[in-house]
Structure formats: C-alpha cells, structure tokens
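[worker-b] picked up task from shared queue
[worker-b] task type: protein-ligand structure
[worker-b] ligand name resolved to zinc ion; SMILES cross-checked against name lookup, match
[worker-b] sequence length check passed
[worker-b] input payload:
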Amino acid sequence: MQDIISAKNIINQIPEKDRDKVESIELEVGEFSEIKAQELKKAIEDLVGWNVIINKINPKTKCECGYIGKINLKQKDKHLLVHHCPSCGSRHKYIIGEDIKVKNIVYF
Ligand SMILES: [Zn+2]
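[worker-b] inference finished, payload out:
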C-alpha cells in the first residue's frame, strides 16, 4: 500500500493539467527509503503510464557539530531511522518517505 501512497504523492506534485503530457519522470530514492524503488516505479507506471527512471542516492547527514558524511544506522523501526553522529554522538531522526524527490520531468 505504501508504494501506492508514495506514487500518488509524486504524481500530485505535477499539476493535473500537465499529467497527460508527461513522458518520463526521474526520481531520486534514498537508499534507506522503506519504499522499494522497483515497487514505486511499477505503481507510478500502473497509475499514470509514465516512464520512471530511478536514481538511488546514498544519503548523507549534516550534524550541528559540523560532521558531514555517510549515515551510520544504529536502529530502525517502521517509521523512523535513527542515526548517531560518529563525531559527537547526537541523534538525528530521518522520517521515511521524505527521501523521495522528483529530479526531472520530461514532457512530450
Ligand atoms: Zn555531530
């Protein structure tokens, strides 16, 4: 079900009047997204028939202490990813679903 909801969220980012003119859409999907990229692609293709190009991205974190780097996961549950900064140890939370972005849209 989550893949359908995410697919609709992405489709809703395109103005309704333009949706018939979309040839392909390019998405960035975070490595830790709960949505499997292939399921999302299929859901969008089933709903609107657009070609879907998936770019998997490796999320980085930026901490208040100045650390910028890869995310090192310590804990995962259904809704949150919790990351402890390797430099200062503070906790950051990532909400799953926010890490899917529309990168590019190609119209006919
Ligand atoms: Zn830090």
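[worker-b] attaching auto-annotations
[worker-b] The chain has two helices and eight strands.
[worker-b] releasing lock
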